[in-house]
Amino acid sequence: MNNKNTELLRFTTAGSVDDGKSTLIGRLLYDSKSIFQDQYEQIEAISEKRGEEEVNLALLTDGLKAEREQGITIDVAYRYFSTPKRKFIIADTPGHIQYTRNMVTGASTANVALLLIDARKGVIEQTKRHAIIASLLQIPHIVVCINKMDLVDYSQEVFDKIHDEFEAFATKLDVKDVSFIPVSALKGDNIVDRSEKMDWYEGTTLMYYLENVHISSDHNFIDCRFPVQYVIRPYNDEYHDYRGYAGRVAGGVFKKGDQVMVLPSGFTSTIKKIDTYDGEIEQAFPPQSVTLLLEDEIDISRGDMIVRTNNQAQTTQDLEIMLCWFDHNKPLQLRGKYALKHTTQDIRCMVKEIKYKLDINTLHREQEDTEIRSNDIARVSLRTTKPVFADEYRQNRATGSIILIDEATNNTVAAGMII
User: Fold this and answer.
1) What does pTM read for this prediction?
2) Domain end: 284, 307, 330, which one?
3) Confidence band (pLDDT; 50, 70, 90) for 363?
4) Are 234 and 363 found together in one domain?
5) Coil, strand, or helix at residue 93?
6) I need a labelling partner for 313 at 20 to 30 A (CA). Which of 31, 71, 202, 411 fits?
7) Are residues 260 and 251 in contact, defined by beta-carbon separation less than 8 angstroms?
């Protein structure tokens, strides 16, 4: 679909405290030659001073921990590295219950979720919660890294037991693609280099997986969706009649000559040309940012959506949402009014009903307890002041997600997925 050199994989890491997440990320960065020699020498010196036997690769990412401890809130730490095959962005999110909202933020655009399990502890409550959030957010690929294999003598039995336990739990979730890799982040087994100590394992290393997992099909190429961000009218002699609609393709493939329809007006036209920063192209697909020009003069403004006549988004003022509440200060207000952002639309809405709170550990629906506080996930019904052009989140993450804003404080108080 796109040039292999520019393919960008976003992955999120989740695990509980001390299961080796920092070491794992440090090992990925170090073994893939993505850190500088002086950074390595610096952590080598610190490790030696502390009397540690191995160079503590966790220190590469723990610079942020120090800041966290000083009370500076770092919600999600993003790290960037690349190999000749791909570019990577890691969203490293803290594992505790009070950080559910951060995990939702960091994982919302991820292609892959890395779930770390300590081989000695197996599947714990935290593991299940991370898996539930990954499935709620429809992250297409999950990799279960069973870490600290060096502490269980690289035992295949231990690996198989955890593998089966997680798989049994995952059948209850909506997850499409799960892989399991036994690793030791500390010793470097199966992170970038294959482990000689686990010849029973026939799968790939973590790095090979990340470089080769097929992600171009994670986008929806079927349902054409183009939320208009900006109308371009240069008003100069050279481009006297130019009228382009700029935005980012949120779904489907738009080709020159295609018949399209504009929501909410319902007017139809044909795509005259597709412009980009680098010149004209014949077709556009997600996640490209382009400018569409149409044959007919139609009144189109920001927040409108260009779709195909026979495949439209649902136009509705009633939304069913799975909501993750962010606000520490105030719980979600029943009949409360909030500003709502959906694609390029800014509208207002009212909370009509709080249906249940989701117990994030058991998937149990609590219908009696409807007080929704920070980090809670709940199913709610919203009524919007004007129509929204929406798809189900599981069909399209771009047109299926919303955020809510408290108009008094201008804080983002929730993120939601349209059911």
Assistant:
1) 0.85
2) 307
3) confident
4) no
5) coil
6) 411
7) no
Give the count of beta carbons closer than 10 Å to the beta carbon of residue 52. Answer: 12
SS (H, E, C) 193-223: ECCCCCCCCCCCCHHHHHHHCCCHHHCCCCC
Q: Quick one: 231 and 358 in the same domain?
A: no
Provide CB contacts within 8 A for 71, sequence distance 6+: none
Q: Identify the CATH number of the domain in which residue 362 sits.
A: 2.40.30.10
Q: Are residues 279 and 326 in the same domain?
A: no
E runs forming strands in 141-198 = 141-147, 177-182
Question: Do both 47 and 109 map to the same domain?
Answer: yes
Report the distance separating Cα 398 and Cα 394, nearest Å. Answer: 10
For the chain, what is the domain count? 3
Could you tell me which of 190, 174, 148, 197 has the C-alpha nearest to residue 16? 148
**DSSP assigned state of 45:** H
pLDDT tens profile 73-86: 445 677 888 888 89
Domain that residue 112 falls in: 4-218
Task: Give the C-alpha separation, 395 to 382, whole Å.
Answer: 20
Q: How big is the chain by its Cα radius of gyration, in Å? A: 24
CATH, residue 115: 3.40.50.300
For the chain, what percent of residues have pLDDT higher than 70?
91
Structure tokens, 183: 């690793």
Tell me the per-residue pLDDT of 120-179, one tens digit each, with 9 for 90 and over.
Answer: 999 988 888 888 888 888 999 999 999 999 999 999 999 999 999 999 989 888 888 999
DSSP secondary structure letter of residue 313: -
Average pLDDT over every residue of 55-70: 60
107 and 46 both lie in a single domain = yes
Are 292 and 355 within one domain? no
Question: Could you tell me which of 21, 57, 23, 53 has the C-alpha nearest to residue 39?
Answer: 57
